[in-house]
Amino acid sequence: MAKKLKKVEQTFSVRALKAKQSLKLSYEELANKSRIDINTLKRIFGAKQPARLHEAIAIADSLKTTVSYLVDYKDTRYMLSKTRVLFRVAKS
Questions:
Q1: Disulfide engineering: 34 pairs with which of 40, 61, 62, 68, CB 3.0-4.6 Å?
Q2: How far is CA 10 from CA 3, 46, 72, 85, in A?
Q3: Whole-number CA gyration radius for the chain
Q4: How far apart are CA 30 and CA 70, in angstroms?
């Protein structure tokens, strides 16, 4: 169980960092949006400290995504594929 939890924490850090970079947000901007201390954010994004639930929610919300996506929850891939199909149908 500890290995699986560590992998989830690592995935969260990697995906959150990629989302932050794609939105071109600085740590200071993200700290202001999420109301999380900048040093805490840096530890979470550096995989030095796991995010607490309220921090994970605030980070995901500030990055305009979901906690499920950030931890690569198995249902996320399914829902994303269905959304893409519906988007293609609606676009045609």
A1: 62
A2: 11, 9, 11, 29
A3: 14
A4: 16
Do the Cβ atoms of 38 and 77 come closer than 8 Å?
Answer: no
Is 81 a residue whose pLDDT tops 80?
Answer: no
Judge whether 60 and 30 are in contact, CB under 8 Å: no
pTM over 0.85: no
Q: What residue ranges do the domains of the chain occupy?
A: 2-91
Instruction: Tell me how far CA of residue 47 lies from CA of 9, 11, 70, 79, in angstroms.
Output: 7, 9, 13, 27
Q: Determine the CATH number of domain 2-91.
A: 1.10.260.40
Q: Are the C-beta atoms of 27 and 42 separated by less than 8 Å?
A: yes
Q: What is the pLDDT of residues 25-63, one digit of tens each?
A: 999 999 999 999 999 999 999 989 999 999 999 999 999
